[in-house]
Amino acid sequence: MAKKLIAADGLIYFPFDFPWTVKKVLTLLKPKLVILMETELWPNFIRTANSMGSKVMLANGRISERSARRYKFLGSFFKEMLNKIDVLAMQSEQDLRYILDLGAEREKVFNFGNTKYDLSSNDIDPRIKGKFTNELQIEGAYPVLVVGSTHANEEEELIPVYKKLKDEYENLVMILAPRHLERLNEIQPLYEKLGIPTVRRTELISSNRKASVIFLDTIGELFSVYSVADLVFIGGTLAKIGGHNILEPAAHGKTIFVGPYMYNFKEIFQLFLKHKACIQVGNNKELTEKMLYYLKNREESEIKGRNAFNIVQENKGASKRIVGLVTELLEK
Hints:
Blueprint: H1 2-5, H2 19-29, E1 33-37, H3 43-51, E2 55-61, H4 65-72, H5 76-82, E3 87-90, H6 93-101, E4 109-111, H7 126-135, E5 144-150, H8 154-168, E6 173-178, H9 184-192, E7 198-200, E8 213-215, H10 222-225, E9 231-234, H11 247-251, E10 255-258, H12 266-274, E11 279-280, H13 284-296, H14 298-314, H15 318-331
Parallel strand pairs: 1-2, 2-3, 3-4, 5-6, 5-9, 6-8, 7-8, 9-10, 10-11
């Protein structure tokens, strides 16, 4: 799958963070620059790369509140590791504050924004929506609810939401994408036992859709599938996981719902709340009520979607800033 999604001269598994494993890989590759993404802070890898003369950069760096508390216990060990990194390009002002508080050197730390705002215009091509409308066989379905990146127990909590919406809108289709595909074998029976017909996305390649619940059992398609949605619910927010990426459905201008737990994306989420670009609920009962309200008040729903889309457009540019810094590092 990675080979299909990424243009690269080579793809390897990241080594286990043992000194001997890391040294063997880095000796073989001899990188001039290593770019680690988001939360990938591996002490032995960073130290070894630095000692071998490689530049090390953390790009789109993110530190959750929980991680900041844990790293604090590591004291000078963590600070020493951070100071082996040449540049730390963080996602937000909050991330910048966390990394400085943990001991990073101020002159090495930048707030460049979140690269997830820089979604490719090719990925939101209107033709993508038509492609998935046809492949998922949902022409004429309304509303289409896309549920992204669910975790344990959330799928069960969504059953009464689905049932109530289905009672009101007989042509409803729910597309559900679990965060971990291996859980489909436990999720699907929950619906089937209650008489809710389901189908997997891959089964639609060779059969006609009769079910109103589609399980997305592929990797790398969720972003594009958001294009067909009338409503989007972000998983990991009813369960105490801390949420997932709300920028992907926002890039499509969709009406986005989240549960009470969005602490992994605190700054982005606050921006969305401030601009009235998403709807937060406390539980599945409130989720049902809010979804029905916005389905019956489509103008308000469209305003939420436009607000979300505008946030993405107004915050682009992190990738370009990071590339500029990469160029500087390579020229040193």
